């Protein structure tokens, strides 16, 4: 009996490494395992990563009780602002991050975290869509590919399972502002999305790349880097820069409130500010780093890829806007209505 | 009259049934030996994906998940079997007692409630009492729903054992514990082992409930496979699937044979 | 495999001296299932009456908001007069319908199979049964994934059909209702076969012989004699397929895409997806459970009636 108890205790006890642990809440398929292993090798800290596939899912999860179980998360720009107002973030001083100076100047003082008190820049990129050139060869630089598709693409479109991005792109397509309170505009957005849904095959964020590679979808809303990965895996897809506009975003690593391993979290954030490590993420995820000095470490295909080099006549992208509570409820209603 | 048992087309249906049941599994097994990286084109026989499962970049993650799955299944299976044996003895040897129908309903409850409802209820419960979701929560949830699965073979076997042997032992001044340990238990053994194997497999295979109540960074084999599948059916998934397939079949065959062997003894 | 727990009656033995031990023997069972199953379900019911906080989380305030969201719509922005919200009811209806069709598939294929096996010589019967049940013991996730792999556009099934020239282009099988039904059928077929098998095995063929002596054809015998007697097994099988099928999650999720939203997906979306409304998820689960209880009550009354024959 005693043997049974001790064995059970040993099995249940988490291995206690000298330097401790780190619990990371991260986007799917973003950070290469080799980089995480490198961090563990350098610091002795064991890292566990849980993934999510949308900013909103991460927020819901943290609010439902997971706060206090993770040390860091990787929200997008608008989500950092929301998390700040909801009191989910802890703060740090630049002194606690020796490599703080590596942050690229244009990302230092951002509207969603002035002075960078709770977050550091991670990667930034754009969200639009890609089309399989084997299926459709016409002009693709318009959001109509997703919201009012040509015959060849109907029923073969995947849409991101992300409220922020879908509603933003929908608003951009219709030419209405992102946080409008005008009921007619909102109704128009709702109706347009519902009509477009008839032509969609599926909602999926972490599946966005695979459906293009496997052919289950011929077009899909996708992040620029993810599309580059699809191309690398053999899909004949072209990333579009729609003339109406598209979404740009910046992902950031934030220090969560009640982080169980705050020290280790700061070490991890500092690690990610090193140009070599930031470049490793860029090379894997195919986005663009938010720190300086990464050029010598970047892979050639990333530097020259069409997904990271928009054509000269492409419009500027827009960030997703954060609306006040009243307005946000209206947009929540549209999303719920869409997903019903 | 054998003729009356025969209905034309029924054999065909049975064959169809078996084909449908086994086709996907056979296909997955065959493709797990596919030599090419693309899952759609056949590239010759190869064991590379099995090697990849054990040594590739995702290997540590799957290894950790497999370890979790196995240990949880072992612990939950054992606990459930012990609890179920006690319950079976009480139900089958206790005669008619007041709480019997209620207990019967209680034991069957996990089988009747849709799995997703159990998953939701358990998650809400743990969140409400503030228990951090993780290994322990998965273990508790598994122990609970494995009880009926362990119970079924044990109770079935117990029902078939005539209690005159135990009566005889008691008449010869054996204590209750001795009668249980030396007479009933050995006769019951095939049922108990069968119940354990069943509980083990059920725990090992569970996805839905585990997915809801697992915590940060904790994966079991099914949840790890699911996460991987969501990003595309890669060949190493098929290798893992085939491995799990083989393990499951092994365990069930074992359970079946042990039961058959046991049935030959009184 | 439910419903097969032996004997709700008195069990064997006259107590054999275990009488006094019944309490302690049953205590662990009562504790485990009571605390970790019954209690959570009750809590879930309570939870469905809480209010959802803006952007996720809950407030401990009684509210019918979750049920209101399910049954009533007040327009897109909540400012129109209330009317019936058909969307979720449609999802439930669709799930029930899918489950019914899956049950029918299982019945059509399962009954002949069960009959065939039950009428084999006793020695081989066990082997056939074993063959039928093995796939069930393989992880449901893996079975669903295997099915998806088999029927996708550039999967083996389409490749085979195209190479022998039966079809020109790939059959669009994934992300359809058909795929989901196939998935459900595939998941729960053994549940249908086993109870019917048990019933047929107990059937006394003397009845068939008597009817044959009276010049009845074998199909008439099947319809008029066999079916009424075997009916409890059939009903049990249908219930065992129907109940898991309405709450299924894996089949609609992996095989269905956005088009086939079922109850399981709806509930999961509230807890794991981008919608994050726990009280609503709890409410939907409560409604699902009520449906299941209803189905079970109908089953209980059917078998009670059948027992009177």
SSE-based structural type of chain A: alpha/beta
Q: Strands of the largest sheet of chain C, in order across it?
A: 1-2
Helix content of chain C: 55-70%
> Count of helices of chain A?
13
- Greatest interface by residues involved: B-C, 110 and 105 residues
The arrangement of helices and strands of chain A along the chain is HEHEHEHEHEHHEHEHEEHHEHH
Quaternary status of these chains?
heterotrimer
Helix content of chain A: 25-40%
Q: Tally the beta strands of chain A.
A: 10
Q: Taking all residues together, what is the mean pLDDT of chain C?
A: 79
Sheet of most strands of chain A: 10 strands, mixed
Question: What spatial form of chain A do the alpha-carbon principal axes imply?
Answer: globular
SSE topology string of chain C: HEEHEEHHHHHHHHHH
Structural notes for this entry:
The complex is a heterotrimer of chains A (340), B (266) and C (309). Chain A has 13 helices and ten strands. Chain A is an alpha/beta fold and 340 residues long. In chain A, helix 7 runs parallel beside helix 13. Chain B is built from eleven helices and no strands. Chain B starts with 9 loop residues before the first helix and ends with a helix. Chain C is mostly helical. Chain C contains twelve helices and four strands. In chain C, helix 3 crosses helix 9 and helix 7 crosses helix 9. The N terminus of chain C is likely disordered. Classes of the chains: A alpha/beta (340), B mainly alpha (266), C mainly alpha (309). Chains B and C meet through helix 1, helix 3, helix 4, helix 5 and helix 6 of B and helix 1, helix 3, helix 4, helix 5 and helix 7 of C.
């Amino acid at each position: 009996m005693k043997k049974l108890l001790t064995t059970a205790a040993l099995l249940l006890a988490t291995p206690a490494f000298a330097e401790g642990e780190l619990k990371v809440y991260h986007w799917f398929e973003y950070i290469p395992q080799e980089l995480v292993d490198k961090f563990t090798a350098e610091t002795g800290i064991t890292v566990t990563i849980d993934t999510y596939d949308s900013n909103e899912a991460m927020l819901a999860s943290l609010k439902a009780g997971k706060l206090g179980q993770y040390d860091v998360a990787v929200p997008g720009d608008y989500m950092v602002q929301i998390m700040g107002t909801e009191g989910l973030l802890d703060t740090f001083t630049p002194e606690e991050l020796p490599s703080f100076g590596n942050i690229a100047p244009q990302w230092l003082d951002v509207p969603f975290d002035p002075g960078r008190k709770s977050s550091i820049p991670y990667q930034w990129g754009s969200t639009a869509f890609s089309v399989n050139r084997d299926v459709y060869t016409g002009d693709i630089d318009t959001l109509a590919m997703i919201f009012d598709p040509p015959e060849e693409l109907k029923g073969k479109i995947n849409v991101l399972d992300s409220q922020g991005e879908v509603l933003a792109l929908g608003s951009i397509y219709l030419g209405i502002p992102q946080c409008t309170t005008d009921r007619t505009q909102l109704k128009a957005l709702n109706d347009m999305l519902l009509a477009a849904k008839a032509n969609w095959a599926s909602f999926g964020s972490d599946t966005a790349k695979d459906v293009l590679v496997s052919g289950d979808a011929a077009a899909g809303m996708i992040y620029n880097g993810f599309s580059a990965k699809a191309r690398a895996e053999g899909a004949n897809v072209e990333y579009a820069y729609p003339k109406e506009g598209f979404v740009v975003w910046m992902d950031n690593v934030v220090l969560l409130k009640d982080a169980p391993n705050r020290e280790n979290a700061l070490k991890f954030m500092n690690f990610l500010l090193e140009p070599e490590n930031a470049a490793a993420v860029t090379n894997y995820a195919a986005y663009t780093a938010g720190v300086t000095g990464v050029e010598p470490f970047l892979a050639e295909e990333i530097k020259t890829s069409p997904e990271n080099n928009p054509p000269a006549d492409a419009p500027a992208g827009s960030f997703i806007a954060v609306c006040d509570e009243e307005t946000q409820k209206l947009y929540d209603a549209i999303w719920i209505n869409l997903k019903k | 009259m054998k003729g009356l048992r025969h209905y034309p087309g029924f054999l065909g249906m049975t064959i169809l049934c078996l084909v449908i049941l086994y086709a996907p599994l056979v296909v997955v097994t065959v493709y797990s030996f596919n030599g090419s990286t693309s899952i759609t084109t056949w590239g010759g026989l190869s064991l590379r994906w099995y090697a990849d499962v054990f040594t590739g970049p995702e290997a540590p993650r799957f290894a950790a998940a497999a370890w979790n799955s196995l240990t949880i299944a072992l612990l939950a299976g054992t606990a459930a079997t012990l609890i179920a044996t006690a319950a079976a003895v009480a139900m089958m040897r206790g005669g008619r007692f007041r709480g019997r129908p209620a207990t019967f309903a209680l034991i069957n409850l996990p089988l009747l409630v849709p799995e997703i409802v159990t998953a939701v209820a358990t998650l809400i419960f743990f969140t409400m009492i503030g228990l951090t979701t993780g290994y322990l929560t998965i273990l508790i949830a598994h122990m609970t729903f494995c009880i009926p699965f362990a119970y079924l073979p044990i109770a079935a076997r117990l029902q078939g054992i005539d209690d005159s042997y135990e009566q005889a032992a008691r008449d010869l001044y054996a204590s209750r514990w001795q009668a249980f340990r030396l007479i009933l238990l050995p006769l019951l053994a095939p049922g108990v082992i069968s119940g354990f194997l069943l509980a083990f497999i059920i725990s090992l295979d569970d996805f839905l409930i585990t997915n809801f109540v697992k915590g940060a960074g904790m994966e079991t084999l099914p949840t790890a496979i699911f996460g991987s599948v969501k990003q595309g059916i890669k060949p190493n998934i098929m290798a893992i699937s085939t491995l799990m397939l083989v393990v499951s079949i092994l365990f069930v065959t074992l359970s079946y044979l042990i039961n058959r062997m046991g049935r030959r003894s009184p | 495999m439910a419903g097969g727990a032996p004997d709700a009656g008195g069990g064997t033995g006259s107590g054999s001296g275990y009488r006094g031990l019944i309490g302690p023997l049953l205590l662990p069972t009562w504790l485990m299932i009571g605390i970790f199953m019954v209690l959570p379900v009750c809590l879930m019911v309570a939870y469905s009456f809480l209010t959802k906080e803006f952007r996720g989380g809950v407030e401990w305030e009684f509210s019918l908001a979750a049920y209101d969201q399910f049954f009533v719509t007040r327009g897109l922005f909540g400012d129109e007069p209330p009317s019936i919200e058909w969307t979720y009811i449609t999802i439930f209806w669709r799930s029930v319908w899918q489950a019914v069709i899956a049950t029918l598939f299982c019945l059509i294929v399962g009954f002949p199979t069960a009959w065939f096996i039950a009428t084999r010589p006793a020695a081989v019967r066990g082997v056939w049964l074993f063959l039928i049940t093995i796939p069930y013991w393989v992880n449901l996730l893996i079975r669903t994934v295997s099915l998806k792999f088999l029927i996708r556009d550039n999967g083996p099934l389409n490749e085979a059909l195209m190479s022998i020239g039966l079809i020109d282009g790939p059959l669009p099988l994934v992300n359809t209702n058909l795929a989901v039904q196939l998935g459900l059928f595939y998941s729960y077929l053994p549940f249908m076969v086993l109870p019917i098998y048990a019933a047929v095995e107990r059937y006394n063929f003397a009845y068939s012989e008597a009817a044959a002596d009276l010049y009845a054809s074998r199909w008439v015998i099947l319809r008029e004699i066999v079916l009424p007697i075997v009916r409890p097994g059939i009903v049990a099988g249908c219930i065992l397929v129907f109940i898991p099928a309405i709450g299924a999650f894996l089949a609609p999720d992996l095989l269905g895409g956005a088009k086939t939203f079922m109850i399981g997906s709806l509930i999961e979306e509230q807890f794991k997806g981008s919608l994050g409304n726990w009280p609503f998820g709890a409410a939907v689960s409560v409604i699902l459970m009520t449906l299941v209880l209803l189905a079970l009550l109908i089953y209980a009354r059917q078998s009670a009636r059948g027992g009177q024959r």
